Amino acid sequence: MIQAIDPLEAMRRQLTAVYPLDNEAWEAFSKIWLPVTHKRKSVITAAGEVEKYLYWVTEGVQRGFHLHDTKEATIVFTYPNSFSGIIDSFLLQQPSKYYLEALTSSSFLRASWQQVEHCRRSHPAIAELVYRSLCITTSGILERQIELMVYSAEEKFRTLLKRSPHILQIVPHKYLASYLGIDATTFSKLLGSVRIE
């Protein structure tokens, strides 16, 4: 029988790959997380609200999206063993321009801004971890910006499946098309014609 990894242990492994925390810092950081669940299709954070929490996904799939008039633009997907939340609203404590929605029933560990901020100010190792995490996130955002601006629809599709081959099975295709910035018809054609090596 395969034993599930404790969510905090999974988080520690992920964080260690970015910047290892000493035992004292990890002890303080690990104590601030509490479990919470959200039902399928529930809005976790709405545009106009200030993001109060940082989430660690333990189960389910979520998406961050922007709504312009009636058009939705999917920005990000999160799934188990990753952080979630509207990060700019969380860090700046200003109203969000985006929604965070549970695409499936979802379970998380979550910590409040005050708790994360207290840990960051109290432990230099946590401050360094936050800094390095933001550097990695910024690099990924810039790379994705290039993909959206200059890649063809097929290149975007291939890049997505290379990066996240499992995503076709867990995210509705209309949201994947939105994420890639292509229409649903083009996405459907690519689905039928592109062979992934």
UniProtKB/TrEMBL annotation:
Originating organism: Flavihumibacter stibioxidans
Xref: Gene3D superfamilies: Jelly Rolls
Lineage: Bacteria, Pseudomonadati, Bacteroidota, Chitinophagia, Chitinophagales
Protein name: Cyclic nucleotide-binding protein
